[in-house]
Amino acid sequence: MAQKVEYELSLKDLLTGKLREADSAAKGLENTVKNIATTIGAAFAISKIKDFAMSIVDVGSKVENATTGLTTLLGNSAAATKVVNDTMADAMATPFAFESLLSANKALISAGLSAQSARQDVLNLSNAIAATGGGDDELQRMVVNLQQIKNVGQASALDIKQFAYAGVNIYKVLEESGIKVEKGNSDVKISYEQITTALQKAHEAGGIYYNGLENMAGNTSVQVSNLGDM
Questions:
Q1: Dihedral through CA 158, CA 164, CA 170, CA 171, nearest 10?
Q2: 155: helix, coil or strand?
Q3: First-residue to last-residue Cα distance in the chain
Q4: Which of 34, 117, 127, 175 is found 20 to 30 A from 18 (Cα to Cα)?
Q5: Number of helices and strands in the chain (H, E)
Q6: What pTM, to 2 d.p., does this model score?
Q7: Is pLDDT at 51 greater than 60 in this prediction?
Q8: Neighbouring-strand partners of residue 155
Q9: Is 80 left (phi over 0), alpha (psi -120 to 50) or beta?
Q10: CA–CA distance from 193 to each of 66, 110, 190, 196 (Å)?
Q11: Which residues pair with 190 in a beta bridge?
Q12: What is the pLDDT of residue 110?
């Protein structure tokens, strides 16, 4: 009997000891996992902070370079700063990126437009592109097209077709502005002013692309994009 009791006590002590060891090991493992998770989390946080800091430096450099270039074009640093600030405001209110809009404004200013006219023309073009589901790529292509038209003084049939490639029904836009253009007419000669005036009318009430930018502003994807611009 005594031997049985002693055996049971020894077994209980052994079991208890093993359970304590297991519990300790489990807690140690849990703490280790937590420590590893904390370390990994901290590493990712540091990485994100680093990426964020680098993005700030990158954007800062772009803004600085753009301001310098615009100062040369406009002959006035205050005017250049205003273009940058206006573009920032437009980027936060439209589905287009700051860099794309800034590049677009700079392109038209370099073609001889005033900062105010360039901004208006860029927004009206952006409106047509947004209304037809286009994005930054289409905006960049069409701004280069507009810049070329402005520099040459008139649009060729090929220039007109470029808008169609970007999804903009420029024939309809021009027609609603009172300018009839037959598709395939290689002799067509449309001025920069006629195109931009037609795009402005398309943006206004009753126009083919009325409120294209404004209607896009409420979309979740645009709000997320604008948050990034901020």
A1: 80
A2: strand
A3: 82
A4: 34
A5: 10, 0
A6: 0.70
A7: yes
A8: 190
A9: alpha
A10: 26, 16, 8, 5
A11: 155
A12: 94
Phi, psi of 76 (to 5 degrees): -155, 120
pLDDT at 40 over 70: no
> Of all residues in the chain, what percent carry a pLDDT higher than 70?
65
96 neighbors 135 (Cβ within 8 angstroms):
yes
The two three-digit tokens of residue 170, written as one number: 């420029």
127-165 burial, b at 16+ Cβ within 10 Å, e below that, comes to: bbbbbbebebebbbbbbebbbbbbeeeebbbebbebbee
State yes or no: pLDDT of 229 exceeds 90: no
Residue 40 tokens read as 């990994």
Helices (H), 75-135: 77-91, 98-110, 115-131
**pLDDT one-digit tens code per residue, 188-228:** 778 999 999 999 999 999 999 998 887 766 555 555 555 55
Q: Contact at 8 Å (CB) between 168 and 132?
A: yes
Task: Extract the tokens encoding 3.
Answer: 């031997």
Residue 151 confidence class, pLDDT cut points 50, 70, 90: very high
**CA 223 → CA 91, 176, 212, distances in Å?**
11, 32, 15
3-class DSSP assignment, residue 183:
coil
Give the span between the Cα atoms of 130 and 226, in whole angstroms: 14
pLDDT of 26 reads 52
